[in-house]
């Protein structure tokens, strides 16, 4: 006998200083079903604290909060919860100069005069992204050996060439080199490299049997460690760590389009 396996609800944090707007979004999510609103707040500082404590799947964020600038809240929320997806729900269209930044750093930008169903659709897509087909993935297991870092870069280059995304070679190779080196130096284990193609991003995952968590470190003239993860964080649209009993997967997503980046 087979049964339908119900997916867990998408865990949402609502951030908007307008109580009536939060109520509207909460009601729309409840009517659609499949969402769990963990908390809501009208404060940017509290939003950051709640994101760190609750680790939601999606944050619905208004940019016009009274205490902190919208970009500051967005950036610090993602630092507090690296795997979170942020959907902006704003009263104004972004300026052209800001649009590329928001496209890289959020899962969607919705103006408040749009239909509320559009916002719910984006929250659903952000919290439960469509799995790529086999033709849109590449995976390789590599041994605990320094030569494996070079092999990981080779897999990345050949896969991106197949996907006609050669313009991401440099960034993707740097990212996979750092993640693979961390697996060797800190987890001291073999590792798996997996690439997956999504509508707006390329996701790079490195899984190992270690339990430590790589963290970006502040720049220091005397310390060598940690700088690589700073580069990963700077280059990625998002990054994070998924833990399991057998170890962890560190992942980073690169935006497929680079037109909005400096120097591109």
- Please write the CATH class name of the largest domain: Alpha Beta
Please state the structural category.
alpha/beta
Strand percentage lies at: 15-25%
How many structural domains in the coordinates? 2
Shape verdict:
elongated
* Low-confidence regions: 1-5, 216-226, 259-264
Amino- and carboxy-terminal Cα gap:
55 Å
Helix content: 25-40%
Mean pLDDT: 84
* CATH fold description of the largest domain: Heat Shock Protein 90
Number of strands: 10
CATH architecture of the largest domain: 2-Layer Sandwich
Largest sheet composition: 5 strands, parallel
Radius of gyration (Å): 19 Å
> How do the SSEs run, as a string of H and E?
EHEHEHEHEHEHHEEHEE
Name the CATH superfamily classification of the largest domain: Histidine kinase-like ATPase, C-terminal domain
Strand order of the largest sheet: 2-1-3-4-5
Number of helical stretches of at least 4 residues:
8
């Amino acid at each position: 006998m087979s049964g339908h396996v119900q997916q867990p609800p998408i865990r949402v944090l609502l951030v908007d200083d307008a109580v009536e707007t939060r109520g509207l979004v909460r009601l729309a999510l409840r009517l659609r079903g499949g969402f769990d609103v963990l908390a809501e707040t009208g404060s940017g500082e509290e939003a950051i604290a709640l994101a760190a404590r609750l680790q939601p799947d999606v944050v619905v964020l208004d940019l016009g909060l009274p205490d902190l600038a919208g970009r500051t809240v967005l950036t610090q929320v993602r630092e507090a919860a690296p795997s979170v997806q942020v959907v902006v729900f704003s009263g104004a269209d972004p300026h052209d100069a800001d649009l590329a930044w928001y496209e890289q750093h959020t899962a969607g930008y919705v103006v408040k005069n749009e239909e509320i169903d559009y916002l719910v659709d984006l929250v659903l897509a952000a919290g439960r992204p469509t799995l790529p087909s086999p033709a849109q993935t590449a995976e390789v297991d590599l041994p605990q050996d320094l030569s494996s870092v070079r092999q990981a870069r080779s897999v990345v280059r050949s896969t991106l060439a197949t996907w006609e995304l050669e313009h991401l070679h440099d960034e993707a190779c740097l990212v996979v080199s750092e993640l693979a080196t961390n697996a060797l130096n800190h987890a001291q284990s073999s590792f798996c490299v997996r690439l997956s193609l999504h509508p707006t991003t390329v996701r790079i995952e490195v899984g190992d049997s270690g339990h430590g968590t790589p963290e970006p470190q502040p720049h220091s003239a005397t310390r060598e460690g940690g700088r690589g993860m700073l580069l990963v964080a700077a280059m990625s649209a998002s990054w994070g760590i998924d833990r399991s009993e057998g170890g962890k997967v560190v992942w980073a997503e690169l935006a497929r389009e680079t037109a909005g980046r400096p120097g591109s």
